[in-house]
From TrEMBL:
<dbReference type="InterPro" id="IPR036837">
    <property type="entry name" value="Cation_efflux_CTD_sf"/>
</dbReference>
<feature type="transmembrane region" description="Helical">
    <location>
        <begin position="163"/>
        <end position="183"/>
    </location>
</feature>
<keyword id="KW-0406">Ion transport</keyword>
<dbReference type="InterPro" id="IPR027470">
    <property type="entry name" value="Cation_efflux_CTD"/>
</dbReference>
<feature type="compositionally biased region" description="Basic residues">
    <location>
        <begin position="47"/>
        <end position="58"/>
    </location>
</feature>
<feature type="transmembrane region" description="Helical">
    <location>
        <begin position="93"/>
        <end position="119"/>
    </location>
</feature>
<dbReference type="GO" id="GO:0015086">
    <property type="term" value="F:cadmium ion transmembrane transporter activity"/>
</dbReference>
<comment type="similarity">
    <text>Belongs to the cation diffusion facilitator (CDF) transporter (TC 2.A.4) family.</text>
</comment>
<keyword id="KW-0472">Membrane</keyword>
<dbReference type="GO" id="GO:0015093">
    <property type="term" value="F:ferrous iron transmembrane transporter activity"/>
</dbReference>
<keyword id="KW-1133">Transmembrane helix</keyword>
<dbReference type="GO" id="GO:0006882">
    <property type="term" value="P:intracellular zinc ion homeostasis"/>
</dbReference>
<dbReference type="InterPro" id="IPR027469">
    <property type="entry name" value="Cation_efflux_TMD_sf"/>
</dbReference>
<keyword id="KW-0812">Transmembrane</keyword>
<dbReference type="Pfam" id="PF16916">
    <property type="entry name" value="ZT_dimer"/>
</dbReference>
<dbReference type="Pfam" id="PF01545">
    <property type="entry name" value="Cation_efflux"/>
</dbReference>
<feature type="domain" description="Cation efflux protein transmembrane">
    <location>
        <begin position="94"/>
        <end position="286"/>
    </location>
</feature>
Amino acid sequence: MPHEHPHSHAGHAPRHAEPGRAPHSHGPARDGQGQSPHNHGGDGHGHAGHGHAGHAHSPGLRHRLVHLLTPHSHDSADKLDPAMEASARGMRALWVSLAVLGGTALTQAAVVAVSGSVALLGDSVHNAADALTAVPLGIAFVLGRRAATRRFTYGYGRAEDLAGLVIVLTIAASAAFTAWAAVGRLLDPRPVTHLPAVAVAALVGFVGNEWVARYRIRVGREIGSAALVADGLHARTDGFTSLAVLVGAGGAALGRQAADPVVGLAITAAIVLVLRDAAREVFRRMLDAVDPALVDRAERAVRAVPGVREVGELRLRWIGHRLRAELAVVVDGEATLRQAHAIAVEAEHALLHAVPRLTAALVHADPAPSADERDPHLALAHHLER
């Protein structure tokens, strides 16, 4: 007997790999439209036991141990990291880069004590400040692990965006400081002493910052953290500053005292370019921008699900370094509620395997329109016209 549905078959909102979630439950609680919410909680449901036939998994020893000792979630070949492991990788990147930059700053400070180089002093302070930008980002990663609450229903993942904004402001301050120092040195030239030691320390600063920049950017892109990528770009600007000290020392060795401030101004321009890239990355994330290719990929995956006649509005948004999806699908108008719900679950399943770093999807099923039936969505028209 066909099921009559005035508006919707199912709203399927799982919470895959989100820390602190309540166990998987199909209790009697109902949502606002009388439907039973179907939640894939963090109790290890994660489709454990269905085997994921046809989904290849890494044969590595570490992966096998993790697979045996932890609940199985949607880790397809394209899914780079579960949400918790991504946070752990981000924290590890912060600790490693903090150690490298701290060591770099200490090395430069030792040379400053011997040479009295004001330029190198500014560079060492700059590197120390860059190391400390790991603090707000680390706090954001820790907050992102906290469970959602009645007030913060999406959790605290967006704290990463706030940390990214702090990093962008720090890069802007770096550009302003570098420009100010360069102009001051141009107006008031000062001799640079102990040039070999200054050059070596500047080279150490450049190598250390560039290594940290590459490491942060790589990990940030792999786990989907725009803030960590921005922090890597910040380290790159500090590497440019160290390079300016090195080039300035070379110019001073050739008797060209103006080389230091001129190079400083050139480095300021380079920092502004890096600032543009970092700001674009962070602001896009704050405005819920995603790669259009991900949207195309998600649509293709859902269209391939048996029972899906059409894919309606599809939205993706980042919450920290995790993706969430909301979409509507059109199914057979004579399908029962259970049949429509099963299609919604399969659509969600396909999304979780097709879209990297996707941890939750809300799938809304609409019946195919009928010529002799009034569209129930018309009741919402006056709300949408505002």
